[in-house]
Amino acid sequence: MRKLVVLGAGTAGTMIVNKLRRRLGMQEWSITVVDQDDDHHYQPGYLFIPFRTYARGDIVRPRHHSMVDGVQLVVGEVDVVDTSTKRVMLTDGRELDYDYLVVATGTTPRPDQTPGMVGSEWRRSIFDFYTLDGAEALAEALSAFDRGRLVVHITEMPIKCPVAPLEFTFLAEAWLREKGIRDRVEVVFVTPLDGAFTKPIASERLGSMLEERKIRIESDFIVERIDEERKTLVSYDEREVPFDLLVTVPLNMGADFVARSGLGDELNYVPVDKHTLLSVEHDTIFAVGDASNIPASKAGSVAHFAVEVFVDNFLQHVAGSPMTGSFDGHANCFVESGDHKALLIDFNYDTEPLPGRYPLPYVGPLSLLEETRTNHLGKLAFRYIYWNVLLPGRPVPLPSHMSMAGKHTPNKEA
Amino acid sequence: MPTTTIDGHTIEVDDEGFLLDPHEWTESLATCLAAQIGIDLTDEHWKAIRFLRDDFAEQGETATLRRVSVVGGIPTKSLFQLFPQKPAKKLAYVAGLPKPHGCV
Predict the structure, then answer these.
(1) B80 contacts A296? CB cut-off 8 A
(2) Who is most buried in A93, A178, B50, B97, counting CB within 10 A?
(3) How far is CA A25 from CA A88, A320, B37, B72, in A?
(4) pLDDT by residue (tens digit) across A95-114?
(5) Who contacts A392 (Cβ-Cβ below 8 Å, separation ≥6)?
């Protein structure tokens, strides 16, 4: 009996065990998945918690409910992976042998990595919304906030869901208008990037949306520390941004056991081949989802498309055949823009987000890089698809590779 | 593709002036590239440039500021002093390497 061990039962890990269980014979393979708890969070839902659109119950379900029969869920914390004996050691002393290992432990916000972030102002005037606790605490803070300077801040790239800070900013701006206090609040968006987003055409579009909403952008800002007493962000080149309410996206890092096991880069991400997701050092280890170092967005959509390619590749690899699937870095993200509208962006390693229609060229019904109500409804509907289609590993009628059909490059139009 | 003439050599660059072929880079070219953005190279600059070149040769990608600090041992604060305002971009420019991925 061969043994597959998957570390992490998030989006990537859950999809992988469900899909592979159907493809690997029960007599030939055991499948074990390890996570530190049995709570699966629908992470895109965190964005809506501060505005009380969603509550905890809407976005948390037991992990084991999403798993098919024949998968063993082990609840425990990984201490270290011993690649020489092919064994995973848990902190409580249990050991799991593997023939093949998939690292799918994602990435986690690490506020402790920026001096002054986790101090006297943490969860008083400094909040994050990439954890459920943080998003709930922020909901409380927002309801008490009625004037001053709201600063939304990204510490360093890469981060999980790179559009979420912009979405939060747009939603907060709309929420302030709804409350009738927009004129009493200054909104500032602080980013280490040189514009609103990473890719030129989307960055320009999203940048002008910030401008239309009178949100100031402070770019190329790499935070060195937070001065708690003066409630001020201080950058390495000594620029300062004071705040009354700071919503920060802390440094994101892969799991610490990745570093302890000698499997990670400087941010604890596992170096893999960006097309096959096989570790560059170990041919029995893959890393899928946010845990790998591929130059794609750290996002559920990337995990989803990558898993589709990974599953067939894995079956070929364990059969001793060359892997024929090649992941293209496909990402597809809804961007909430406030007032019940959203944009949609679709891109991959080589092609930046472009305007057009999705998923059917020219037909849609979703519009790329354009604010529409239909896109917003698509985003809300996705929560249902996530629990009921995506996680169980049922086929989603979307191609895993990005398509250029129906897209156009704006500067080629003129 | 645009070209530029530096130090008597014609070199292919991208729209922002970054070298297209890292193999065209030489140490004397680095001195000229640095001068173009107002930087006079000291030993400290060279330490960062050599790390970036060596790391690129191994990894095939331009190191981020974090990687230069964690793996290369040069604190981010120093990089901002050596290559003011936009250290990641300026360092890659002088080292003749592609702009680091803005990450995605």
Answers:
(1) no
(2) B97
(3) 23, 17, 62, 47
(4) 999 999 999 999 999 999 99
(5) A18, A66, A68
pTM (2 d.p.): 0.94
Q: Where are the domains of chain A?
A: 2-109+253-318, 111-252
∠ CA A254-A96-A70, nearest 5°, is 95
B102–A198 C-beta distance less than 8 A: yes
Please count the other Cβ atoms lying within 10 Å of the Cβ belonging to residue A24: 19
Superfamily of domain A111-252: FAD/NAD(P)-binding domain (3.50.50.60)
> Whose structure tokens read 């009996």?
A1
CATH for A2-109+253-318 is 3.50.50.60
Domains A2-109+253-318 and A111-252 share a fold: yes
Helix/strand/coil (H, E, C) string of A5-57?
EEECCCHHHHHHHHHHHHHCCCCCEEEEEEECCCEEECHHHHHHCCCCCCCHH
State how far the Cα of A328 lies from the Cα of A351, in Å rounded to an integer.
10
- DSSP per position, A87-124: EEEETTS-EEE-SEEEE---EEE-GGGSTTTSSTTBTT
CB contacts, 8 Å: A236 with chain B: 76-77, 79-80
Instruction: Determine contact: A259 vs chain B, CB below 8 A.
Output: no
Half-sphere exposure of residue A101, counting CA atoms within 13 Å on the CB side?
28
Distance CA A197, CA A335 (A): 12
